[in-house]
Amino acid sequence: MSSTALPDFPWDSLAGAKTAASAHPGGAVDLSVGTPVDPVPGHIREALASVSDIPGYPTTHGTPELRESAVSALARRHGVTGIDPAAVLPTIGSKELVAWLPRLLGVGPGETVVIPELAYPTYEVGALLAGASVLRADSLFAIGPQRPSLVWLNSPSNPTGKVLGADHLRKVVEWARERDVVVVSDECYLALGWEGEPVSILHPSVSGGDFTGLLAVHSLSKSANLASYRAGFVTGDPELVSRLLEVRKHAGMIVPRPVQEAITVALADDDFLAVQRERYARRRLTLQKALQDNGFRIDDSEAGLYLWATRGEDSWQTVNWLAERGILVAPGTFYGPRGGEHVRVALTATDERVAAAADRLAG
Ligand SMILES: Cc1ncc(COP(=O)(O)O)c(C=O)c1O
Could you tell me which residue ranges the Aminotransferase class I/classII large domain spans (predicted)? Predict the structure, then answer.
């Protein structure tokens, strides 16, 4: 049996830089991954525990309360109206969905999946697991006359923090509808706009209130510090969601019942989201200033959890330069060939570690 030819897991190649950064007398400041560091709020932990005595299997579709909670969160936080709660489907974090979505929708060999030029690596993995081809393209022009089966969008972007405006998103949706192409928007950073206001693909200004052919993928990892719980959901076109539900029921892709409860409570809590946003906003300003004062240019980065920074040199040179100062970041090449002169600096470190990074940059 042959294994699917997947790319090497990119973070393994950071081992040398990690060793160098860890040799710093003050220890490494790890800004190479977007993993939350602030605690899970007490009431979310209580929600998780409150149903931990239930012995039976949970439903793949999630509790009605979870689905209602997702619908109201999208309306309150992002102005998305008109979603039928039946068209909400919880996922075990969003990474598994990203990795399996093309396969779950029946995309296969001979078909093409479009991903952003600079992209979260799992979009490519998902296309390869389905046996499909990958095309990196940021514009309809770059797609040309081809008719892909599925187009991934990611705004705010990992890694660049770029926000796609409603006009851009609408053009993609119109183009896709004319060609019967599914558009999937990964919106896991939607609540983290700093200089731009990110828009959901399901927002009426983009979708016109018609969700046909559209899916929005959401995660609670970053907005509610729930990366360890594995908590996300997908919504949009009721027909597509119902196809996903059918396959996921057969395949046992079920969110554990306690996590479903945690998702329900977290999606109802805008106050905690505001607190967490404040933390990231502060860390972002500290890192942005420290980098800019020390010869870096920051590109895009209007939203999301990363600064897309460059010193105008090969990205590995920058990774090593920072590692010598005890700071670990990811080279832009992890996200696509166009990232060769950038590094991705995550905002997910404690205030103490972020202050340490700023001190080290100041020399
Ligand atoms: C763009 C993007 N999508 C999806 C994910 C997956 O997040 P999770 O599986 O924690 O929901 C990440 C994680 O960093 C991401 O950056």
Answer: 29-361
Which of 40, 96, 98, 125 has the most ligand 1 atoms within 8 A of CB, as the residue to mutate? 98
Residues 143 and 111 in one domain: yes
The answer to whether residues 333 and 247 belong to one domain is no
Question: Does pLDDT of 2 surpass 80?
Answer: no
Tell me which residue range forms the domain holding 346: 10-39+271-362
Q: Within a domain: residue 108?
A: yes
| 3: in domain | no
Ligand 1 geometric centre to CA of 123 (Å): 10
Q: pTM for this structure?
A: 0.97
Pocket of ligand 1 (CB under 6 A): 34, 93-95, 98, 120, 154, 158, 186, 188, 219, 221, 227, 232
In a shared domain, residues 125 and 168: yes
The last residue of one of the domains, among 213, 247, 268, is 268
User: In the chain, what percentage of residues exceed pLDDT 90?
Assistant: 96
| Alpha-carbon gap, residue 143 to 121, rounded angstroms | 19
